[in-house]
């Protein structure tokens, strides 16, 4: 037992001495933890740095060309989401516009059936469905009617591709910022009847064409029934109208008197 214990102590001392002698050698990449990054400043000196995404050291340095592991990328994503929410514009970029559902009525009318859904994607404190409808009329050179159920009726026959280009033009001109392409913008009118867009994300401001067009928007409302006069209602309740019965149609044989 004593010999075995002595041999075990000897092996431990040999391992520690070997590690002390190899302190000046380069550390192999397989034995380095994944939370550290090593760089070779000289042939015999190794420098270890922490991977701090906030401080920008290690793998997250601006001049680092090494591949970042997936778990570190995921941690940086959550840090960016918590501490820099203004940089997370990926959700806005993936938002797509609805395709217009066009229904032609003869040769003189075209219905935009899903106009409420399209206008709801643009509506805010400065833009509404009437502004979108006037812009569509101006680009198509026509006029139309907005029914109570927000169904837009256009004068003339138009294809679906034409309506798609008009809606896309409205999105680029009156919604998106020309600098950062953010949707967080405000549309307002200046003192000299000019229209401007101010971006809440980058602070850019630029002018946009107005939507004042010769053809105005006609908004129809549901018809209301005229109220009945109280005297006639009282008479109708007191003496209901009697329905005349139709006389039965009976064929009568004509009487013929003989001269005999």
Automatic annotation (TrEMBL):
Q: Where is the composition biased (Polar residues)?
A: 14-24
SUPFAM superfamilies, per database record: Translation initiation factor 2 beta, aIF2beta, N-terminal domain, Zinc-binding domain of translation initiation factor 2 beta
Pfam families of this UniProt entry?
A: eIF-5_eIF-2B
Query: Which SMART domains has this protein been placed in?
Result: eIF2B_5 (SM00653)
**Alphabetical UniProt keywords:** Initiation factor, Protein biosynthesis
User: According to the UniProt entry, which residue ranges have a biased composition of type Basic and acidic residues?
Assistant: 1-13, 226-235, 246-260
The membrane-spanning stretches of this chain are none
- One Gene Ontology MF term: translation initiation factor activity
InterPro entries documented for this protein:
IF2/IF5, Transl_init_fac_IF2/IF5_dom, Transl_init_fac_IF2/IF5_N, Transl_init_fac_IF2/IF5_Zn-bd
Boundaries of every Translation initiation factor IF2/IF5 domain copy = 92-205
Q: Where is this region: Disordered?
A: 1-24, 221-260
Family from the record:
Belongs to the eIF-2-beta/eIF-5 family.
Protein name as it appears in the record: Domain found in IF2B/IF5-domain-containing protein
State the organism named in the record: Lophiotrema nucula
């Amino acid at each position: 037992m004593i010999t075995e214990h002595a041999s075990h102590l000897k092996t431990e001392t040999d391992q520690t001495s070997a590690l002390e002698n190899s302190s000046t050698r380069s550390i192999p990449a397989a034995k380095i933890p994944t939370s550290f990054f090593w760089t070779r400043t000289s042939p015999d000196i190794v420098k270890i740095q922490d991977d701090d995404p906030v401080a920008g050291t290690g793998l997250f340095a601006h001049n680092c060309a090494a591949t970042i592991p997936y778990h570190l990328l995921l941690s940086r994503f959550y840090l960016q989401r918590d501490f820099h929410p203004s940089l997370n514009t990926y959700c806005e970029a993936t938002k797509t516009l609805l395709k217009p559902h066009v229904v032609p009525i003869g040769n003189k009318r075209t219905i935009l059936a899903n106009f409420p859904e399209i206008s709801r994607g643009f509506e805010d404190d400065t833009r509404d469905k009437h502004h979108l409808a006037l812009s569509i009329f101006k680009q198509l050179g026509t006029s139309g009617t907005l029914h109570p159920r927000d169904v837009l009726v256009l004068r003339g026959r138009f294809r679906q591709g034409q309506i798609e280009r008009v809606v896309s033009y409205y999105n680029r001109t009156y919604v998106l910022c020309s600098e950062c392409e953010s949707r967080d913008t405000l549309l307002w009118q200046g003192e000299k009847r000019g229209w401007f867009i101010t971006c809440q994300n980058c602070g850019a401001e630029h002018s946009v064409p107005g939507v004042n067009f010769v053809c105005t928007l006609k908004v129809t409302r549901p018809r209301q029934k005229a109220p009945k006069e109280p005297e006639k209602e009282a008479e109708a309740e007191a003496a209901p109208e009697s329905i005349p019965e139709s006389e039965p149609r009976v064929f009568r044989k004509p009487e013929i008197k003989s001269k005999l």
